[in-house]
Amino acid sequence: MTTESAAAAARATVYGYPRQGPNRELKKAIEGYWKGRVTAGALRATAAELRRANWLQLAGAGIDEVPTGDFSYYDHVLDTTVMVGAIPDRHRDAVAADPLDGYFAMARGTQDVAPLEMTKWFDTNYHYLVPELGPDTVFTADSARQVAELREALALGLTARPVLVGPVTYLLLAKPAPGAPADFEPLTLLDRLLPVYAEVLADLRAAGAEWVQLDEPALVQDRTPAELSATGRAYRDLGALADRPKLLVASYFDRLGEALPVLAKAPVEGLALDFTEAAAAHLEELAAVGGLPRKRLIAGVVNGRNIWVNDLEKSLATLGTLLGLADRVDVAASCSLLHVPLDTAAERDIEPPILRWLAFARQKTAEIVTLARGLTRGTGAITAELAANRAALASRATSPITRDPAVRARAGAVTDADAHRSQPYAERVAAQRAHLRLPLLPTTTIGSFPQTGELRTARAELREGRIDRAGYEERVRAEIREVISFQERTGLDVLVHGEAERNDMVQYFAEQLTGYLATRHGWVQSYGTRYVRPPILAGDITRPEPMTVRWTAYAQSLTERPVKGMLTGPVTMLAWSFVRDDQPLGDTARQVALALREEVNDLEAAGTSVIQVDEPALRETLPLRAGDRPAYLAWATEAFRLTTGGVRPGTQIHTHMCYAEFGDIVRAIDDLDADVISLEAARSHMQVARELATHGYPREAGPGVYDIHSPRVPSAREAAELLRTGLRAIPAERLWVNPDCGLKTRGWPETRSALRNLVAAARTVRGELPAS
Ligand code: GLN
Ligand code: ZN
């Protein structure tokens, strides 16, 4: 394909860049500041230097317009809360006393004040701080940070475009403030918020911004007519301002759907759309509204949230189609590059041919620049890049890593029977009761016990070669002995080995499965100063040998009580990794499920009669649009059943999920066909128990009675009270007693007391049950 030169030169741009720096300098500076080891001045200097380096790197790579305001000390939604003056009452004094400390107090809380709630940013693994708004909220504009960062970039001689969270998305992401009516809708504050945005826009214009970007990713979700009309009003009002920069409304993570006609009609000068997710549907929608004849269109054709090289020819074809649909077409990544690691060059452990399949933020920037050049000057101007790209794509498509015939044959031969246990739940429950002989209200934990400093040291020493594998494993066994002995002394009914050998619940398995790649420096911000290194699902999956059996078997050899085997489920293995883009997600899930199924069967063969397959990510991976959910839930639940479907009726399968709001997936949870589910419930006072009951959930359940996210130890009385509440929704024959989640982030002293109290509570409440 040859693209003839477009009318205007296409510009290359991005909406945001990884904040941390090549060696996570930002994390170190912020955590140093918290510990009092780094002064506020030094922290600010580090931050300014990181911003400067990012801008210069972007500009040096050929990015025509750099973003500003995407940097953050913690979170860009929290920054927006500061920008609009929506500081919660409980934080006002701290913010007034010292803005930076007040900012961190909102993010992390202090001894006396709770932080803002944190939740996931759409369907990414980034977490933002939820704004708290009420009928009494008064907004005031504070454009200082945005203006200062714009000036920094302009001072470098760059063309810069400030990026803000848009007003509609900001309100839609908010929740009612404490004290506000529970049904309060923050969107009703729109008319109060718009003048504040108007002020910020005027300030940015005065500081030299030609364009300002307003991010509205909330518009790619299903929106009510009222929300769409509020959106139309918002952009009519902002568009009508006399003193303002040109406005670019950006959407990402999916297609705009019903919001597209609203924004196409709005008096704004540009739209940014995502052409990586649902690209074909998005193109059709764009054609259906008659294109954007008088607008600038920024086409997100380079996926900003996965790590695969772009198919440049395919992107050029999309861009070519778009040329006919807008006044001017520019090229970008689909979303901020915040969601990918910085640079593949740091990955010395990945072989060069495979490394060429990958594109992190720096490589994506180069792709965007190449595409803009190709769009402007024709493919003849990028022949070398196209040839290299074609070679990388071909090498990936034909590699034995991505296509293992044995794995494909096995996945293809899966039958419906494989994904079903041999007996329905109602029948196998008797076999399990006879076999396990547990008391009513059996007590257990979710899997991990405290990850002590000694364990982390041992792992570091193993990595650095200061101890050998045998020495390391002996330390893990010592920890297992301690954990088993503690649980026996405390009187728990179903024990766990404690997961001492695991660095992370996904990485531990990824390291042992072929087809997964690990990175050394592939850090991605999860929240605040927490960064994770998601493994890369690159190829067909096999399990060369058992991954957990010897640890579980060792633990079982130390006790008469049942020890629960612990695995991470297939959906979570995908959700917390970078996934393949060359086959449907369901196919990848099925391969992972088949590998995990071997592990489940091996655990059973080794004498494990209770096996837990954790799926904390089942709910969070739910597609953004309701119409896409049934297909997702179908493959997700099938993958779980395939993992667990091969065991005998008497083997009890548990699953575990955290995070509230299970209401909309109770049906799917039932479709997992697990025997027992443990859920997070302590903070919501057993709300999930009621939700399960309302939906007629027929299986056993353990709504958590110990909030493990807090260092607080619940008393036995408190836990008993929660159990009594649980019993009103779930009968005693089906109620389990457990914490909300794993204990790996807790210390031993509080874990000891909390579990003692939990067992005491179960005993007390058992004593209150009518004798049968
Ligand atoms: N079994 C895991 C643990 O206890 C579950 C963790 C999770 O739900 N996130 O650590
Ligand atoms: Zn959990």
TrEMBL record:
Binding residues annotated for Zn(2+) 2, in chain numbering: 658
Cofactor remark: Binds 1 zinc ion per subunit. Binds 2 Zn(2+) ions per subunit.
Catalytic activity: 5-methyltetrahydropteroyltri-L-glutamate + L-homocysteine = tetrahydropteroyltri-L-glutamate + L-methionine
CDD domains to which the protein is assigned, alphabetical: CIMS_C_terminal_like (cd03311), CIMS_N_terminal_like (cd03312)
Residues that hold Zn(2+) 1 according to the record: 656, 671, 680, 741
EC number: 2.1.1.14
Pfam families, per the entry: Meth_synt_1 (PF08267), Meth_synt_2 (PF01717)
Broad EC category: transferase
Cobalamin-independent methionine synthase MetE N-terminal domain sequence ranges: 13-323
Co-factor(s): Zn(2+)
Amino acids binding 5-methyltetrahydropteroyltri-L-glutamate: 24-27, 120, 125, 576, 620
Residues annotated to bind L-methionine: 446-448, 499, 614
Sites where the protein binds L-homocysteine: 446-448, 499, 614
Chain's role: Catalyzes the transfer of a methyl group from 5-methyltetrahydrofolate to homocysteine resulting in methionine formation.
Name of this protein: 5-methyltetrahydropteroyltriglutamate--homocysteine methyltransferase
